[in-house]
């Protein structure tokens, strides 16, 4: 899920209101006084209405006759949306998000590596090779590192030959990018290239058990790096 691309006043309103909702400053069930919010943010009702449409698309709000515009319960939010993920990270919910991401990856990616080794094509190998090369070039460039890592895992899912598995990039990628920014932003994370190369070599050799083991090792290293990053990151007041 890509983040909202709006710019200017409209985009700023989406970002400010979305962050407040996700952080709990505007609580589930709260009725929004759209006119008062517009005055607070110094924007027109037209801008407010368009911004609220974007937030409704993310599952954060809804509107009903006789009730007005209100904050939806968390279970209705699109938790896979890139903006919602980013707002959670900024609002102090990052540790829970990263824990959930680690669980999903542990369920999906070893099995995906196993299947990729059995079904990969030459085109799949080319995509994995390109992503690994980009990862090697990206050292020190936070955004480039996150993009290369996402490209590798996206290519691995595609190499399973299963269209549904391939689209799980929509589930994994937004959180993976935030995880990479957190881990590599500290500057003391280990080199991710060797662990990814071992996965690629096993997939290239069509050795499914080795590919699965290599992915398990990669995820163990990723969890270790994440634990170090979280331990060294100041917690937001009020978070566990």
List keywords for this structure.
240 residues, mainly alpha, three-stranded antiparallel sheet, 11 helices, 4% strand, disordered C terminus
Structure description:
- By secondary structure, this protein is mainly α.
- The chain is 68% helix and 4% strand.
- Strands 1-3-2 form a three-stranded antiparallel β-sheet.
- α9 crosses α11.
Q: Secondary structure elements and their pairing?
A:
Layout: H1 8-23, E1 31-32, H2 34-41, H3 45-57, E2 61-64, E3 68-71, H4 82-90, H5 94-119, H6 122-137, H7 142-158, H8 163-166, H9 169-185, H10 193-204, H11 208-231
Antiparallel strand pairs: 1-3, 2-3
Helix pairs in contact: 1-3, 1-4, 2-3, 5-7, 5-9, 5-10, 5-11, 6-7, 6-10, 7-9, 9-11, 10-11
Task: Provide a quick synopsis of the model.
With 240 residues, the chain is mainly alpha-helical.
Class by alpha and beta content: mainly alpha
Overall pLDDT score: 89
* Strand composition percent: under 5%
Q: Largest sheet, described in full?
A: 3 strands, antiparallel
> Given the structure, what is the number of helices?
11
How many strands appear in the DSSP assignment? 3
The ordered H/E elements are HEHHEEHHHHHHHH
Identify the strand order in the major beta sheet: 1-3-2
Q: Rg, please?
A: 20 Å
Q: Low-confidence parts lasting 5 or more residues at pLDDT below 50?
A: 234-240
Shape: elongated
How far apart lie the N and C ends? Answer: 28 Å
Q: What's the helical proportion of residues?
A: 55-70%
- This entry's quaternary arrangement is single chain
């Amino acid at each position: 899920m890509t983040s909202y691309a709006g710019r200017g006043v409209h985009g700023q309103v989406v970002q400010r209101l979305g962050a407040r909702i996700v952080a709990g400053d505007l609580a589930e069930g709260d009725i929004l006084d759209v006119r008062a919010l517009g005055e607070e943010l110094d924007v027109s009702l037209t801008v407010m209405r368009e911004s609220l449409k974007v937030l409704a698309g993310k599952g954060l709000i809804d509107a009903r006759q006789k009730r007005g515009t209100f904050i939806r319960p968390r279970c209705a939010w699109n938790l896979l949306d890139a903006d919602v993920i980013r707002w959670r990270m900024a609002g102090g919910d990052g540790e829970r998000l990263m824990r959930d991401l680690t669980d999903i990856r542990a369920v999906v990616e070893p099995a995906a590596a196993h299947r990729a080794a059995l079904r990969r094509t030459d085109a799949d190998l080319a995509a994995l090779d390109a992503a690994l090369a980009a990862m090697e070039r990206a050292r020190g460039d936070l955004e480039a590192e996150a993009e290369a890592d996402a490209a590798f895992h996206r290519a691995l899912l595609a190499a399973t030959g299963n269209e549904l598995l391939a689209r799980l990039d929509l589930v994994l990628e937004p959180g993976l990018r935030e995880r990479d920014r957190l881990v590599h932003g500290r500057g003391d994370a280990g080199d991710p290239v060797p662990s990814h190369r071992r996965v690629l070599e096993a997939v290239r050799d069509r050795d499914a058990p080795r590919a699965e083991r290599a992915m398990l090792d990669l995820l163990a290293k990723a969890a270790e790096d994440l634990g170090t990053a979280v331990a060294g990151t100041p917690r937001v007041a009020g978070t566990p």
